[in-house]
Structure formats: structure tokens, C-alpha cells
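Hi Y.,

Following your request, here is the sequence exactly as I used it, all 441 residues.
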Amino acid sequence: MFLQKLKNKLENEKILILGFGKEGTDNYLTLRKLFPEKKLAIADKLELKNFDKKIQRILKKDKNLKIYFNKNYLNSLKKYDLIIKTPGINMKEIKQFLKKRTKITSQTEIFFEYCPSKIIGVTGTKGKGTTCSLIYQILKKTKINSYLIGNIGTPVFQILLKAKIDDIFIYELSCHQLQNLKKSPHIAVFLNLYPDHLDYYQNLKEYYKAKESIFKYQTKKDYLIFNSEQKILRDTIKKSKAKKIPIKIKTRKDIPKNLNLLDLEASISVAKILKISEKDIKQAIKSFKPLEHRLEFIGKHKNIEFYNDSFATIPEATIFAINTLKNIKTLILGGSKKGKIDFTNLAKKVLKNKIENIILFPSTGQEIWKEILNLSKKTKKIPKKFFVKSMSDAVKIAYKQTQKGTVCLLSPACASFSIFKNYKERGNLFKKYVKIYGKKP
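Below is the corresponding structure, written out as C-alpha cells. Let me know if you'd prefer a different format.
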């Protein structure tokens, strides 16, 4: 029944898919399943040759498809009634190209409106992916039919076509996906709120407001799990109508040492709402492996422990990493900026923990070091600093400077784009050179 409602909704609309990455491809393939003969359009600033060859062949064969793949792709928007936008495209950039009555929607918005199943939505500046993965692991342990979807990497439109009422969807929700939602999940998890994405939003207030859709449309029958240790979150969720479940960080035994305790407590709270037994929860946690590039233990080489935390793109994430791991003597920091970043607390943590070696990438490396120097006037001992422009040089220095029996941590506190394509490339290069130089005498 829900599929028929969706078809009725879209049948007479003149549709353009805006943005053709992984999610845009999913939008196209799903619409083609629903409407084999319908005229559709796709627009993206990249040319067709930049996309997967199999997809290129499919698009070229589609006689009912109009393609706008070029730098002037936004000029096509005024020809269409309904635009399905991918999250990374900023509304401010496209506004001037729209007709007055053009409707803008997203894959996430459509999924929330028509999905017949329960949705567990997880948001927060940091920790979303790990929390979603841990919830999914717990549900799998109890053989609940569940799907891990959303910002974690799995587009949802094709999955919607086979959704059943007894399914449970664990949805990782970024601020971009939440921004225009008109419906909230049955169980909402709000982990934390830190300054981020200030290259996209005008100010913090606008960024925080985008996150509110996680609970904005909940009712008294829904649940809101939130980090009660953050004042800004306690204040933000006051207007929620849902049953509020506060979580606090507790020290627990027998858990992976590189697992964030806040993510753990949030996942346990979800499991309890779903009436999953303590035994199943404990077994799932025990077998859980943290996600790649999140405090990922690479191994012990030349008697030095190496950890890859490349996903730490804000100072708060790096501070958490320093608090979690013991005996860090070398820390690799720096990268590109996403708006204004305050490194004061990070510099304090570096000095307080007596980290001996700081390896710094451009362009924020100089800024971080300046903050450390400013604060170090109150202490006699400051770290050694090393400015580098490649991961190869960073790892070479790490091997040379790090004491045996201690830890070297890559946790940049910044985005990756000054040198690297993304945080994955940064983390993978770190792992590559750790292994290469670890084998050399």
C-alpha cells in the first residue's frame, strides 16, 4: 500500500535528480523501477565520463532520460516541478535557479514519509556511525530483521521498495539529511553537538537548528535518547514531546578499549527500549569491531602501538581519543579548515597529557602549534614539533621520535582536504606507511 501511495505522489511530477553520486544513482535506479517509461532528468556538475562505466551504459541506453552533466547544470532546474536533491548540495547555491513553485525533496525525506517500518535515527556531530553499527550488531544478535542505512554509506531508496512492517531501520542522519525533514524517527538518538560544517552553514545557530528534526516531529509514543552531559543538548531537547531518556558515560568492564563509551551507552539504551536481553547485549558488544578510521588499532610495530583516528575532523574528537588511549607520546594533527575552529582545549589537553611529539599537517598545523606555544608559557616542558607535507614524512618521523612501548596516534582534529582527498585516503595512507616503515630495519 505504501508503494502505491509513493507512485501516486510521483506519477504526475516532472522530476529532476540533482547530484549523481552514490545516492543520486540510487534515486535514478529506484525511480526507473517504479516508472519504467517515465521521463526523468539528472543534473550534476561532473561530466558523464566521471561516473561508473556500467552506470554510463545504463544512462546512455535510457531514451526517456535527459542528462545535464556540465558546469552549467543548475540552469536546468527551472524546467522541473520536483527536484530530488542529494544532501551535499547547498540550498543557498540553487535557490536562484528555481521556479517559484518548484518542490525540493530528498531521498531521506521520501523514505521517512513512506517507510512502513520502525526507524531508529542517530545523529550528533561525532559518533553516529559507530553507534548505528553497534545497534545493528545487537539487533542482528537477536535475529531482528534490521537494516543499517543512511549516511553510513548505504542509500535507502531501493531498500524502501522491499520494506516490511516488521523491519527495523537504523538510519545514520547527518545535518544535511535532517535539514528539511517533516517526520522524526520512532527512536531518536542525539549523541552530541559541537561546532562543525561552518563552511556550509552561516553560523552555529543554523547548524544546530538543522539537527532538531531528529526529534521535532516526535510524539508521546516516541523515544528520545540524548547525552545529558552536554548543556546545549539538554536545552535543545526541552521542546521535544517524546519520552526522554538521558544517558551518561559510565565505566564498564570487558569492552573494547577503543570504543566510545557514549556510543556504547546510547546503543544499550536503544536495545533496552526494544526489550533485548542483557545477555544478548553483552555478547554483541564483546564481538563488536569499531569502524575503520575511528580509533582503529593498526598494530604494534617496532614496539610502538599505532592508532588510526583519521575520522576525527574536529578538536573534540581528538580530545576524546587522547582521553581514551593511554601513553600517547606522538600525535599527528592538522589539515584543512571547515569554518573557524577553536584549538584552545585541544592544546590544553596535549600539554596536560605530556605528549612529547606533535607532527603537523598544513594548513592548520601552524595554527595548532601557535595555540600550544601560547598556553605552554605556564609549563616548562613543551612537545617537539615537526611540520610535514606528506604522510610518508609524518610516519618516518613518528618511528624515529616515538619511545618504544608507547603510542603513536593519527587524530587530526581537522578535515583532510589540504593534502588528502578525504579522511579515508588520509587514514589508508597512514596505515600503508606504518606497515612499510615497520618492516624496515
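The domain at 112-286 is CATH 3.40.1190.10 (UDP-N-acetylmuramoyl-L-alanine:D-glutamate ligase).

Thanks again,
Q.
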